[in-house]
Fold:
Amino acid sequence: MSQPASLSLDQAPPIGVPLRFFLTAPLFSITAALLLLWQGPDLLGSRWNPALLGLTHLLTLGHMGLVMLGGILQMLPVVAAAPVRRPALAAAMVHTLGTGGIVLLCCGLTFTLPLALKIALPMLGTALLLFAALIVVTLRRALPQNMTARAMRLAALMLAATVLLGLTLLSNHAFGWWLQAREMLTNLHLAWGLLGWVGILVVGVAYQVVPMFQLTPSYPAKLTRWLAALLFILLLGLAPASHSPALRMLLGILLAAGFAAFALTTLWLQSKRRRKLPDVTLNFWRGGMISLLLAIALWLAAQIVPAMGITQSYGLLLGMLMIVGFAMSVINGMLYKIVPFLVWFHLQSRRRANGPKVPNVREILPESRTRRQMWLHFAALGTLLAAVFLPATFTYPAALLFGASNLWLWLNLVSASRTYRRVNALLRQASTSAG
Ligand code: HEM
Structure:
């Protein structure tokens, strides 16, 4: 794989910056699987079940959030042509406070521990709001025509808004002053989190990585220029529309059209790629886009048959398709391109003539291992969806498959980082003996 032209070693953050986030993230999804195994079908019984809220955040903040934070810190030098100042310090702060806060949040919600939630509040607030501010400020240096930078900035603003709403909702659990507007605020919080922070980020990152890693033509210029901004404005509009069902429906239909246009364009570009070799990342993205389209179809069906939209299965299906099907698939695929590339890139740039050979990306993470993990991931998704209809039969197999898939993902990432450490030690030895 060729190195992106704009990435240079003096600008790239140390490899430990993204890796600490990537290696921690699957531990949260493995914990989510254990929680599902422990609680069984009862966990899926009600939207407001505290353990289900804990499980949701093990995935949205713990797994997806951490990968997205690490990935952004890695991508900033490429998209903004300038790294974050003191990246190792910024990463250590955000990672330590963020991880601690997520653990406390999820334990506090699952086991109803107000004290844990009171401590989680400032930790998560500081880590995530600081991170969002850092991104918005750093990306001021990006060129105005860089559409990925623009989308990343909008996604960071959505993260800040999601966090502020999340903290307000959390204060309810921590201090017990039950807000009248709980359901309305939760709906806004989850829409901004899943469609704004996650959705807009995936859209913006896709502009850069789909053509580069999957060798497709570029996204149409009109789409890259307008889509992220349009989605952002529509999502903001949901706040004043909270009391008007008709306006909410209109905004929802426009959002559905925007995300459907993105998913269909991505699938179309993938079908036009130059080299039709099998590729795990491409298949993860395909699965992600199909899940997004299914989620959109389900949402539209619930607008046509309102009785369907108020059922517990509808919310669960929508959440699983968006979280496990869309976001986690795309993220898993991205990790399999980014991690071996970073390991290779950092080793190669340190290698001297006649020094030890640096393994290529396929040797760092063999496709046979990533492909099997991908099938396990999609099998877990299918079984989780089946568990919504037949919880007694499918909940335990779903939890086992989901846990196994994420454990395997984690082991694959650990093995790539071990290769880095081993070859780096050899390179260091060779350069001291040459010196
Ligand atoms: C500091 C960060 C966050 C905090 C403190 C937080 C807190 C909360 C709380 C307390 C609830 C439950 C609402 C209630 O019981 O009244 C909730 C719901 C939810 N949150 Fe978060 N959240 C955060 C970040 C996120 C992010 C980044 C996402 C998505 C990417 C997310 C996705 C969700 C979802 C999907 C639900 C709804 C679950 C349901 O309706 O069944 N949260 N959040």
Notes: The longest helix spans residues 391-434. The chain has one domain: 16-434. Residues 1-6 have pLDDT under 50 and may be disordered.
